């Protein structure tokens, strides 16, 4: 049994499918602070079986210990956490408490239960401002906001844990920019309030829920002047967790980028989304957003060598899958699932 923390969330629900499809039994722990349990009902419709669900907080060490014991958990994939960069500047202690303290409690429960295999969701944000590109795992770390620092501190903590006891099997996965949705259109990202990330915003403009996209700067040193990012399909990202888990059959600590190795600009994303949706996406060029870098993309070589993993899906597919999710679920998980228009 694999324990998935944050398994009701955007990435977690896709990892849940990857695990169930691969034949694993899954227990999900989530406090639903940024998700809806309906995601797991949708997972069941896709996979034909469901994970065990426990509504609990990772900071509740006793509850986590009970779940580890009761479910016979052998490994943990840890995605639970707060993830909004802007909010982390305003509420830093909530981020340290939730992410850092939460991981400490989780690890403590795991130690007590004798579960020593852990895959952790880190982020490319730990690199900070790129000193060179593409970003490989040896690039110096220097996160520039409290959210990023929580990921950095957790990484350091896990490295110390491994140094103190090399029976641990730890996989640190640094995600670049997750995007897209499951191809069924059943599960996807369901941001509460105003989305933080580019794809959900573009998609809401295409759907007419927002008037236009504000492009944060067109004066960067990039071919079209807008920022460049490494967008990775969430289904590819999910399969990376499976590869990491298989790799951790041996003790060790591994840190790997999960990215495509390609960069796409904000305007390329807008044009691709327009092409796959057939909708116009009005935009306006605004000021640069504080804290943004011009270009960020991964060197995914190590993940390929060490895990045998690489991404397979294109930007077109990310946009098409995101759009299908948007069309079928105009109100996210709070509404009903509409039929796939392409099938009717
Ligand atoms: P998400 O908010 O959709 O999922 C996180 C889940 O964790 C949610 O279901 C939330 O309810 C749950 N959660 C939060 N705090 C909890 C706690 N204390 N106890 C139990 N459950 C808790 O976010 P996501 O995009 O799926 O991100 C998953 C992980 O990946 C996060 O750790 C995030 O930092 C990391 N990550 C995300 C991105 C991204 O752009 N989406 C990029 C890099 C890394
Ligand atoms: C992408 C590009 C923006 C919105 C963030 C976190 C990072 C990681 C992934 C968790 C940039 C531009 C965006 C808009 C725009 N999350 N943009 N108008 O900033 O690369 O990374 O999510 O770990 O930590 O920082 O992603 O989707 O916000 O932005 O022009 O309304 O889109 O300037 O160039 P980012 P993003």
Give a description of the structure:
With 344 residues, this protein is α/β, with parallel strands linked by helices. Helices cover 40% and strands 17% of the residues. The chain has helices at 10-21, 38-47, 61-71, 85-90, 92-113, 146-164, 198-206, 234-247, 266-277, 301-307, 315-328, and strands at residues 2-5, 26-30, 52-55, 75-78, 117-123, 169-175, 177-179, 213-216, 228-229, 231-233, 252-258, 264-265, 283-286, 295-296. Strands 3-2-1-4-5-6-11 form a seven-stranded parallel beta sheet, with helices on both faces. A three-stranded mixed beta sheet has the order 12-9-14. Helix 5 packs parallel to helix 6 (146-164) and helix 7 crosses helix 11 (315-328). It comes from Bradyrhizobium jicamae. Pathway: Carbohydrate metabolism; galactose metabolism.
Reconstruct the topology from this structure.
Layout: E1 2-5, H1 10-21, E2 26-30, H2 38-47, E3 52-55, H3 61-71, E4 75-78, H4 85-90, H5 92-113, E5 117-123, H6 146-164, E6 169-175, E7 177-179, H7 198-206, E8 213-216, E9 228-229, E10 231-233, H8 234-247, E11 252-258, E12 264-265, H9 266-277, E13 283-286, E14 295-296, H10 301-307, H11 315-328
Helix pairs in contact: 1-2, 1-8, 3-5, 5-6, 7-9, 7-11, 9-11
The structure holds nicotinamide-adenine-dinucleotide and UDP-4-deoxy-4-formamido-beta-L-arabinopyranose.
Nicotinamide-adenine-dinucleotide is lined by residues 5-6, 8-12, 29-35, 57-59, 79-83, 98, 102, 121, 123, 175, 178, 197.
